[in-house]
Amino acid sequence: MQTKTIRLGGVPEHFNLPIHLAIEDGSFASRGVNLEWTTFKGGTGQMTKALRAGEVDACILLTEGIIKDIIAGSPTKIISGYINTPLIWGIHTGAKNELSRHSDIYDKQYGISRFGSGSHLMAIVDATFHDHKIDKEQFTIIKNLEGALTSLTELSTDVFYWEKYTTKPYVDSGQLRRVGEFVTPWPCFMIAATEEVLEREPESMIRMLRTIHDSCDRFMQSDENIALVEQRYGQRRKDVERWYHSTEWAIHGWVSDKMLRSVVHNLKVAEIVDEAAQLPDLVWKR
Question: Which of 148, 163, 183 is the last residue of a domain?
Answer without folding.
Answer: 183
